Amino acid sequence: MIYEERPAPPGLEGIVSRLRMLETTPLRRFEKILPLPSVHVIVNLSAPYRLFDRQGAATLVSDAFVSGIQSEYLVIESPATIRHVAAELLPASLPMVTDAAPAAVAGRVQDARRLWTGVDGLVAGIRAAPSPDAALSAFAHFLRAKRTGRGTDAVVDRTISAIQADPAQPMGDLAVLGGVSHRTLIARFRAATGLTPKAYAQIWRFHTFVTAVRDGSPAPDWAGLAAASGFYDQPHVIRAFRRFTGWTPADYHRRVIEFGPEAASFVPLDELPVPGG
Questions:
Q1: Has residue 26 been placed in a domain?
Q2: Which residues pair with 23 in a beta bridge?
Q3: Phi and psi of 79, rounded to 5°?
Q4: Are 241 and 262 within 8 A, CB to CB?
Q5: 275 CB contacts (<8 Å, ≥6 apart)?
Q6: Among 15, 148, 156, 226, who pairs with 231 as Cys (CB 3.0-4.6 Å)?
Q7: How many separate domains does the chain show?
Q8: Which residues on neighbouring strands pair with residue 67, listed in sequence order?
Q9: Contact criterion met (CB below 8 Å) for 88 and 119
Q10: In 25-131, where does DSSP find H-type helix?
Q11: 41: closest CA among 94, 120, 104?
Q12: Residue 58 is part of which domain span?
């Protein structure tokens, strides 16, 4: 296994949270990718991934693709060797590096060429890079060159920080914090992220819970984890897990125990889920 990671390089602060390169053998043929609170731009250096919809129909994923913030899980078939370079973008940073509307990115997996020109050159440059460090540098150079000159929306930034501090906050309180009306907050948040504040809070709450389960004990205190993550009670947790994973928390936890914390958001599967499930 090869894994290289670096924080946001100079010129990409406030846009990229990290860059990473991974080369490994998948644990299973299929993988369920759970919702993450960030945008991912990936250059695949191996055979193509296949992405499955809820009916089990597959599409090939481009060699350079963008996965927006997802509000439900994705199911993929991995190549025999996983080898890719990825940039993890902060949730409201897309307008800083592309003219594409964030609403056209959220909830989708699409060819990066729909957002940027020069992607073929990026792929070729990364493939020719003599080292992981050089590949990450090439990716950083590409993203720096795509800066639009626009900054982030201060109201949206404050709202994201407040949600991450307490995802259970009422939306009305977030509007007051931003100094805008509820309707204006929704419009500005959607323009920056492609999501409503409520949708982002639900994804962040779920991600916080998953992180706590991953890093916790073999016998989780479900009630305590629920409260710490901003869920009202255990039934609330179960409903969220059904929506975001298709499993109960206990079903999910068994898989984390089996495959390890590295599989917490990228859960190996022996077979495809039942169509529609």
A1: yes
A2: 2, 83
A3: -70, 170
A4: no
A5: 54, 55, 56
A6: 226
A7: 1
A8: 40, 109
A9: no
A10: 119-128
A11: 94
A12: 2-145
pLDDT of residue 221: 74
Q: Could you report the average pLDDT of every consecutive run of 10 residues in the chain (277 residues)? A: 94 97 96 97 97 94 98 96 98 97 97 98 97 97 97 96 92 94 97 96 89 72 75 79 88 88 91 78
Within a domain: residue 135?
A: yes
Give the number of other CB atoms < 10 A from CB of residue 78. Answer: 20
Q: Do 255 and 267 contact (CB within 8 A), yes or no?
A: yes
Work out the widest C-alpha separation in the chain, in whole angstroms.
52
C-alpha span between 17 and 38 (Å, rounded): 9
> In this structure, what CATH number is given to the domain that contains residue 42?
2.60.120.10
Tell me which DSSP letter residue 162 carries. H
User: Is 50 domain-assigned?
Assistant: yes
Residue 217: per-residue pLDDT: 63
What is the full DSSP assignment across 220-236? --HHHHHHHTT-SSHHH
The whole-angstrom separation of Cα 228 and Cα 226 is 6
Nearest to 65 by CA among 81, 51, 80, 79: 51
Question: In the prediction, which pLDDT does 277 show?
Answer: 59
Distance in angstroms (rounded) separating the CA atoms of residues 100 and 106: 11
Question: What is the model's pLDDT at position 263?
Answer: 87
Q: CA-to-CA distance for 21 and 126, rounded, in angstroms?
A: 11
Output the pTM of the full model.
0.92
- Residue 39 belongs to what H/E stretch? strand 39-44
First-to-final CA distance of the chain: 32
Measured CA distances, 57 to 49, 120, 181, 248 (Å): 13, 27, 42, 25
In single-letter form, the type of residue at position 237 comes to V
Determine the Cα–Cα distance for residues 245 and 249; give it in Å rounded to an integer: 9
